[in-house]
Every structure is written in structure tokens, then in C-alpha cells.
Fold this protein.
Amino acid sequence: MNRVFSLAAATLFAVTLAVPAAPAPTVDKIVADYVAARGGLTKIRALKTLRQTGRIFAGQGREALVVREVKPPGRIRVQFTIQGVTAVFASNGTTGWKVSPFEDDMALKELPEEVTREAIDQTDIEGPLVDWKAKGNTVEFAGNETVNGQATYKLKVTLKSGAVRYSYIDVASHFEVRVDSTRQVKGLDLKIETTFTDHQKTGGVLFPRKIEIAAEGRPQHARVVVDKVELNPALSDALFERPNLPKP
Amino acid sequence: MRKLPFLLFLVPAALFADVVYLQGAGTITGRIVEQTATTVQVDVGGGIIGVPMSNVERIVKARCPLDDFEARAAKLAANDTAGWLKLAEWASQNGLPMNAHDAYEKALASSPDNAEARQALGYTKLNGRWLTEDEAYQASGYVKYNGEWMTPSQAQIEQTNEAQDKARKDAEYAAVAAEQRAADAEARAEEAEKEAKKAQEAQQYAYPGYGYGYYGGYAYGVTTWPTGTGPSLGAGSRPSGGGRR
């Protein structure tokens, strides 16, 4: 109990120290600074397709090579390779499909609707804060918080789809350093914290190269290391479409 | 350098791995150990995977990371800790986590306190002692619930949610069962009514004095209404067909 109290007190102290005396800037100012830090609107808007290659580590020796290809609107294809076995999950913006030998199933299958919806939400390469009004998203200031010892502005972002996430923008660098979202896991709403570090520019646009995903109340984190970012690679629409297989 | 293309022709195809392309997307890369008309068995370096031929689009020979791993491992001495660490990292970068694990184990065998190998294998140093991931979570006060480590309070939340979810589902099943029993009873009641009418007509012929009331009483009486468990569904059983689930 003492330990919990000490932790809470320390956190409260840190938060108190971090809160700037001056009033917080407007949402528009926070977002404008964030967009500028990412490379500016022109460069961000020039992104038509994106390919990220890296590795994901999930503890207990579980790791995979990951290739994530995105072509808005709505098209996403994620490929995982573990020990010579490659699985593919994709969506064309309307429906989703997978071939997932890891699940002991070599056949092509439809993705559940909720999984497809979640995947489509991730295809906004620009991010939901860029042109948020035009995209039908809403953004509200939700306070000041400290993330990994750094002062941040907390923004509540409600996507057009209705999904809510909280974005933490570093006060000093204006980088997005954390996003909180809620995901259904085994029928339960679970808070997911995604932390971004090691930001680097590719083609003048900023990308985090280390991403850590933590679920509420669980010590095991998934770590993603992005080894390569490719801007505007040639991605045909067919990559995302469900392959037409001959009838058995 | 000019000799390279020629030398490549001399490399037997059997040295290359097999890439099994699945119908639609996805691949299995390794060495085919058995192939029949219905199945192909592929050794991926960490186990054998069976693929139904009906899911296979094509199979091609190609050099793969597993080939390179084995060639590099064959050249390393057992006590070459740095060499095994380098190979382990390479295997990890090339999607061979099981081979990476083996290479880290080799590094540990020659250098048991090597921090890089220990951390890569999931060990955490606590009070000067290397603990496995599970031991470290346990020592930090986490509990394992449904195969996942979590805080005791999170486990409590999930346990409560699961119990509530089960109670909700049980209530739904009970409602469906009751609905079905009611429908069965109604059908039987209708049938009984028809039978009663027939019998009444017959009785009216044979025994005019009994009248309609008796048979009517029987047809709509207690015996055809569902009892506690009903005629077709035992307590707690689920409907075998139809209705909501």
C-alpha cells in the first residue's frame, strides 16, 4: 500500500511540475506545430503510398518480420514472417481477408468485420490530426500529461468512424510520443498504450522507428523496430484485393 | 568475379530451399522432407509443417535465409561467443527466431553470463541473478491468468467480466430454452385441443352426459404446460437448433 501511495505521490508530483504555468495553446496551434515537426503539410500530403519494414518482438522468444503496406483510401496489407512461414492480412477498404498458416490454416479466409474496420482506421498515412476537420474527425484538448518524463499535450481525437484515441504531443519537440486507444480483446475493452520513440526523417517526413505497445495491467509489451521506411512505393490495387481462387 | 555466374551453375539445386507458395498469398520456406499427392511436409528449421496440396499454388527452389544460417553456423567454433551472437542477430533480422534462439544458446554455453544473449533469450537480472521472463514477472508480483501475465487487479477485473459474461450467456440460453418450451407447449396444446375435440365428438356420441368441460379441462390443464425443465430440454442444456444463440 505504501509503495502504491509513493508511486501515486511521485506521479502527481511529476505531473504538477510538468504543468506549464502559461495557458495551453489552442488545439489548432498544437496540431500546426505537430504537422510542422513532421515535415510540413506539403511533404505529408505528397504521401500516396507507404511501406514500412521491421521486426516485432512480443517476449518469450516470439518475434516476426513485418512488412506493412498502405495505400489510402482504406487499403492495407500486413505480412508477418516467422521461421520461414509468411502470413498475409489485407483489406481493400471494404472487406478484409487473410492467409494465416500460423493459425494452422493454409486457406484464404475472410477477416471479421471488426478487424477489417480497425485495419481501415490505420490507413490514414497522414494521421488523423492532419486536416482533421476536413476528414470529419474531432480534436479536443484533454490536459497536460507527462510521458516518459516529458511534458505533453493530451488531445482527444474522435475519428469519423467513432473510434476514440488520445494523442500525446511532446511540448518541446511537438512529436507525437504516445497514443492511447481501446481494443476489444476476448470480448473485453482493453486500453492499449502505443509509445513512439527514435523519430527519424525519411524523405523529409518524420517517422518513429521504435514503437512499443502495452496493454493495461500487463507487463509484456510488444516492441516494433522499423528498419526501413519507403515513401510512395509502387503498390498495385490488386495487392489488397481478395485473390480469386479456383473453386475446389 | 567473372567466374561467379559459372560457379553458380555448379551449385546443386538440392542445396537450395523450397518455397511453397500458398493459394492466394503466403509462403512456407524450408526443405521439403516428404511430398505426396495430397500433402507436402516442409522442415522450416524449427519444426515440420504439413501443407495440403489443395492449398499449394506452386513450389520453387530458391536460396533462403535458412541456407545461409546453416552455412554460417557450420563455420563457427563452439566457443566463438562473438560469432554466435552476430549470427543470432542476423537470424533475427532474417525472420529465423528459432535459429536465433539456438545461436544465443550457443553463445551462452561458452559465456554463461553474457548479457546480450541473456536479454535476447528473455532473461532479466534481479538481485544479481538471471531470471527467466516468467520468474521475473512472478517475482514482480504479477499473476498468470488465462495464460497471460497481468497485475492481480487486472486478473480480478477479467475474472469478474468473464463471470458476468457467462451469466449473461446463461440467461440468454435460459430465455431461448424457455421460449422453445413455450412454443413446444403451445404446439402440444393445439394438438391436444384437436384431439380433445375429436374425443368430445366421439364422447358426445357415446357418452353424451360427460360434456365438453372435462376434455376441455384436460386439454388446457397443467399437464401440457411446461414444468420446471420441460419435456425436451434438461436443465442447463442448450437448444439444439433454431432460436437465438
Observations:
- Confidence is low (pLDDT under 50) at residues 1-21 of chain A.
- The two ends of chain A are 62 Å apart (CA to CA).
